[in-house]
Design a protein that fits this description.
heterodimer, A: mainly alpha, MetI-like fold, three-stranded antiparallel sheet, 12 helices, 60% helix, B: alpha/beta, 2 domains, four-stranded antiparallel sheet, 26% strand
Chain lengths: 400, 313
């Protein structure tokens, strides 16, 4: 077949197809569905749904199921629980009080039963002693580590580096101070838990009050919007503009250092963040259709706020409150550390840290234990808050 | 069906202003009435003000001007407590989004009973619960569903919960704001048929807001076509579909897909350009009755042309 013939054949085939297509189009024009071609479906079908087999899952149960999967948060929650229990009960059952002084037992290192046999927390401290007076230490010397000469004006003085049991040395053989004592011989164990208790009280109380004020203020501002919102937000901005430290110092100077004035300092601007968050939640939810639906049925503002909008904002509220606790504790520690803290002899974690830092090189335990507790608290509350946020709002996972 | 008007809307306007100068005329001089027992369809493209009209009627928005008369009483503006009760219990709304319209923190029982509780329709809890079970049964749910939370249900089931919620107060009229447009196509018929049955059994009046023209045709007795906040054509469903007069209505009808691929391929959409009317100060449109009960929003000249055209058909 020649090339020309091939082209001819292809043209012919194309022309045939084209004709067919046009024919089809022509047919389609007349081919219309009439109403008789259609039937109604599901007209007489009786609707009846199956009941569900599984248990009803409420919002909180759902959140709990998700929270449970977050191991870090569970551990954090357990740590918080332990710390809270210790803060409540440890000072009660320890026999001494946070202000009981034994000046003769000053700065004893930690000593814990059983652990002391392993060489940890055995109440010993390595000391450098003149060899000539070593005998006066008597039984207290547990072990001589090395002997050496120290030269004083060219004359060698024989010295001994020895591990000395401070408890025997100071006649406190019958006592066990788990975390040691401070320079006034007060039991750090009791003081630390007492301090934790006060820090927690300050943290939790200020956050609860902040939440309350924040929810009310934010709810009113967000729900009514418009001019009301404008005015309320300007007030917040003015209040938020006052420097925190200046206000804190003024308050403490005016009201005296104490738990109450401290809580007041933390409240005075602390609720602003909460109220802003609540306001945002209200703006988000107030135009939801279920709120409108309830409104068409004549629901009052109070019902809409407390029954419809607030329960839906409860997740972020709880989460934010959880995050606010460690920051309140931190503010307290920080102010105490600056010397604006709780009145002596009352301890708080910040006060203990401030006291301990003076003798950080000689008796590090005075700083170490409060630092561990405050770090654990901060870390646990943050991890716990993270877990709560993920549980309440899985979409927010990983965001801050 | 009687000629008794259950709802009358006269010159209703709702403007939204953002800032000092820009005013959005969402609903602009809309008038219509709904007869007792009929289904009145309100159609138009998105953003034409159908939903705003519905929400203004049910007092979610305060009208800028105009009046709404329900059961012979004006219900726009401030109402006394009893009058307000009469509206909130006798007029109900079904919402578009079956997910957003049910509070996720409440059980189905709480959701359904809410309207009855707020309006104090039942003397005691037992009678309310009994009625709630009746409602559940009516929409094809079981008693066990009462203790469940909305997230456990499918879209169609949720929409039926919404319907049960609207029905418990024994309303005279229901405003259905695109009740099926958020649903899967396979579920749309289910909900639609349920609404239709309920309308017949309970003698409900329904103001049906939708943008799906074929659904409105199947469902409504009379239809109003809205464009840019105004009603451009109002008539019985068959007249609007068979003899559309206003160019916008024609354009809307040309957009309905035909369930036949070969014909569908040939369907030509007629574009509507509001500038085509060429309205000016001397040539203003207004409502004309072109046939008995068939109103169109046209200028005098256009109306004369349209009348000739209609007569020729």
């Amino acid at each position: 077949m020649s090339k020309k013939q091939k082209i001819e054949a292809a043209k012919k085939a194309f022309a045939e197809q084209e004709a067919l297509r046009l024919q089809n189009l022509e047919n389609a024009k007349t081919e219309r569905l009439s109403e008789d071609d259609c039937t109604f479906v599901q007209m007489d079908e009786k609707l009846h749904d199956q009941k569900f087999e599984h248990e009803p899952i409420s919002f909180y149960k759902d959140a709990w199921l998700r929270f449970k999967q977050n191991k870090a948060s569970i551990v954090a929650a357990a740590i918080i629980l332990v710390i809270v229990l210790m803060a409540i009960f440890a000072p009660v059952f320890s026999g001494t009080s946070y202000r009981e002084q034994h000046t003769e037992f000053g700065v004893l290192p930690p000593r814990i039963p059983y652990l002391e046999n392993l060489g940890i927390a055995d109440g010993c401290r390595t000391m450098e002693i003149q060899k000539s007076v070593l005998d006066t230490y008597g039984d207290a010397v547990v072990e001589v580590i090395r002997e050496y000469n120290q030269y004083y004006r060219g004359k060698p003085i024989p010295m001994v580096e020895a591990k000395v049991n401070q408890y025997i040395l100071k006649g406190a053989d019958d006592y066990y101070f788990f975390f040691g004592t401070d320079n006034l011989g007060r039991d750090l164990w009791v003081r630390l838990w007492r301090g934790t208790r006060i820090s927690l009280i300050i943290g939790v109380c200020s956050v609860l009050i902040n939440c309350f004020i924040g929810v009310v203020y934010g709810a009113v501002s967000g729900y009514y919007g418009g001019k009301v919102d404008m005015l309320m937000q300007r007030i917040i901005e003015i209040l938020g503009g006052v420097p925190f430290l200046v206000m804190a110092i003024l308050f403490v100077m005016f009201l005296g250092a104490g738990i109450r004035s401290f809580i007041l300092v933390l409240i005075i601007t602390g609720w602003i963040g909460m109220s802003r968050m609540i306001r945002a939640q209200f703006f988000r939810y107030k135009d939801y259709e279920y709120v409108l639906a309830s409104r068409t049925m004549g629901a009052s503002d109070r019902r809409l706020i407390f029954r419809h909008i607030l329960p839906n904002a409860i997740g972020p509220i709880i989460t934010q409150a959880t995050f606010a606790v460690p920051s309140a504790i931190f503010s307290e520690s920080f102010l105490s550390y600056l010397g604006l803290g709780i009145q002596a002899p009352e301890p708080s974690i910040g006060v203990l840290l401030a006291e301990g830092q003076g003798s950080l090189t000689t008796s590090p335990h005075l700083t170490l234990f409060p630092a561990i507790v405050v770090s654990l608290l901060m870390l646990s509350f943050n991890l716990f808050g993270n877990g709560l946020r993920d549980a309440f709002d899985p979409r927010a996972r990983g965001s801050e | 069906m009687t000629d008794d008007k259950i709802l009358e809307v006269n010159h209703l306007c709702k403007y939204f202003s953002s800032g000092k100068k820009s005013v959005m005329k969402a609903v602009d001089d809309v008038s219509f009435f709904v007869k007792r027992g009929e289904t009145f369809g309100l159609v138009g493209e998105s953003g034409c003000g159908k939903t705003t009209t519905g929400r203004t009627i049910i007092r979610l928005y305060k009208p800028t001007s105009g009046e709404v008369i329900f059961n012979g009483k004006r219900i726009d503006g401030r109402l006394s407590k009893e009058d307000s009760r009469a509206v909130t219990s006798k007029m109900q709304m079904i919402f578009q989004d079956p997910i957003a319209s049910l509070n996720p923190r409440m059980t189905v029982e709480e959701i359904i009973c809410e309207g009855a509780k707020i309006n104090k329709l039942f003397p005691d809890k037992e009678s309310m619960r009994k009625r709630m079970y009746e409602m559940l049964d009516l929409v094809g749910l079981t008693r066990e569903h009462a203790t469940r939370y909305p997230h456990e249900f499918s879209g169609g089931q949720r929409q039926r919960i919404g319907i049960a919620r609207a029905l418990i107060t024994q309303p005279d009229m229901i405003i259905a704001d695109e009740p099926i447009s958020a649903l899967d196509v396979s579920i749309q018929a289910q909900v639609l048929n349920l609404l239709n049955d309920l309308r017949k059994d309970l003698g409900l009046t329904i103001l049906f807001i939708a943008h799906d023209l074929s659904v409105v045709k199947y469902f409504s007795d009379r239809v109003a076509v809205m464009n840019r906040g105004r009603i451009v054509e109002l008539s019985s469903a068959s007249q609007v579909y068979d003899h559309p007069v206003h160019p916008y209505t024609k354009s809307l009808l040309s957009a309905i897909p035909i369930p036949n691929p070969r014909v569908e391929k040939q369907r030509k959409r007629v574009d509507y350009d509001p500038g085509m009317h060429g309205y000016d100060a001397s040539n203003q449109p207004s409502m004309y009755e072109i046939e008995p009960g068939h109103f169109v929003f046209l200028s005098e000249k256009e109306f004369a042309d349209a009348k000739k055209q209609l007569a020729a058909q």
